[in-house]
Automatic annotation (TrEMBL):
<feature type="domain" description="Protein kinase">
    <location>
        <begin position="1"/>
        <end position="328"/>
    </location>
</feature>
<dbReference type="InterPro" id="IPR004147">
    <property type="entry name" value="ABC1_dom"/>
</dbReference>
<dbReference type="InterPro" id="IPR011009">
    <property type="entry name" value="Kinase-like_dom_sf"/>
</dbReference>
<dbReference type="GO" id="GO:0004672">
    <property type="term" value="F:protein kinase activity"/>
</dbReference>
<protein>
    <recommendedName>
        <fullName>Protein kinase domain-containing protein</fullName>
    </recommendedName>
</protein>
<dbReference type="GO" id="GO:0009507">
    <property type="term" value="C:chloroplast"/>
</dbReference>
<comment type="similarity">
    <text>Belongs to the protein kinase superfamily. ADCK protein kinase family.</text>
</comment>
<dbReference type="InterPro" id="IPR000719">
    <property type="entry name" value="Prot_kinase_dom"/>
</dbReference>
<dbReference type="Pfam" id="PF03109">
    <property type="entry name" value="ABC1"/>
</dbReference>
<dbReference type="GO" id="GO:0005524">
    <property type="term" value="F:ATP binding"/>
</dbReference>
<dbReference type="InterPro" id="IPR050154">
    <property type="entry name" value="UbiB_kinase"/>
</dbReference>
Amino acid sequence: MRQASLGQVYKGRLKETGELVAVKVQRPFVLETVTIDLFIIRNLGLVLKRFPQVALDVVGLVDEWAARFFEELDYVNEGENGTLFAEMMREDLPQVVVPRTYPEYTSRKVLTTGWVDGEKLSQSTEDDVGSLVNVGVICYLKQLLDTGFFHADPHPGNMIRTPDGKLCILDFGLVTKLTDDQKYGMIEAIAHLIHRDYDAIVKDFVKLGFIPEGVNLDPILPVLAKVFDQALEGGGAKNINFQELAADLAQITFDYPFKIPPYFALIIRAIGVLEGIALVGDPEFAIVDEAYPYIAQRLLTDESPRLRSALRYTIYGKTGVFDAERFIDVMQAFENFISAAKSGGGEDMKGNMAELGAIGFQPSTSLVPAFPMAISQPENPIKARAALSFLLSDRGDFFREFILDEIVKAIDAVSREQLLQIASSFGVRNPVPVFGMVPVRSGALLPTITEEDRVILNNVEKVVKFLSAGTANPTANGDVNVVSLVQELLPVLPSITSKILPDVLSRLSSRVFARVIRESFL
């Protein structure tokens, strides 16, 4: 049924059950022939090591590839890889399927799996191909950045669309395993790339093994910056063509102490193939754009200190100042991830994401009084957008704590702005005489709005409009219908306030007290 350089695939039927199976049989003397070839190439690599101008690590590449190759020749190992992969995807992405392995009919040179009917994804003309490509992207991102168990041979023949509209992945002989440092390093590098932080990217490349420790980074930085600037033209990081970027990075290896690590060479090949399949159906496809929703989900939900630091950078940048646009960008990507995960037949990459589409009531045992449920509740409550639901959910605890200072600053700025508006409505425009007898600076007792406050108020407006979009019906002039929004959130406010209200009040009082002291006596 199928021929390859290492073996042939036959279609058969089990005598006991009558089930159709695929039987892969290894060609004779493959192991001996390839071992000799690898020995010769590796010795050539040892010779090339004597020439410093040759930056390509031939020996390292051969060692990495040879290790994977010998594993690929062990069909027992391949069958076990397929079984493990299926278990990893079953709960999170049920639309991804893997043929069942029959270990009782498998040996080192013969592999027996279930037969799967279908057509190559790259050749299918069905309407759901685009969504299946997205499922494939999520599947490979999960392998690359989550499980670390990476199917490194996703050529078009190994990705099948089944008659029932699922994505079947074949051939688990070539698998590479990634460490936590490598997974986190790639997420950090993508976050820095999106924000064009080239200084940080160079340091990421050191961590990932592209640049040796102790090398002077100054000469490499402008070269990498030029490569990334070219790649970012025409739409930013989210429109990068990965294959072209990889080719440009490979060119640097000839002139600078920069090399592509052997493990990453397999990743480049795999992602390049996946990108090529996607570009056939969608010429506008960009791998970074497709990856960002998954990365946003990891940043928002992963408890790793490195990823929490990356989340802070993503929203606050190098300046350490909260950026509403970055916040909205991350949350929009997170919502896109939820949609993509559900289109893949799964509720969520972690199992609980389906509940983030709507706010539900959870009884609170806190001392905060519960709001009356029967007062003016909308007859048909609108589902809150996923970003708001996440922030109000238990899984959003860390992120709420993360932005607690911004919540306090926002409450402080908004309350002082409201006080100024109230004073103005009563005609109190110059209240200094009122406080003339008070032995402190008069400005300390008056609400004022600084330039920093104006930035905070602007951020509040952007974030509130984003989070409330599609939640509360807008007013006639397009503003947020605050009454409707509050009514919709009433069921969850008690449990949320019980978690954050004490901290908010404590930090708010400290902030106000510090400002009064500063403006009174300093």
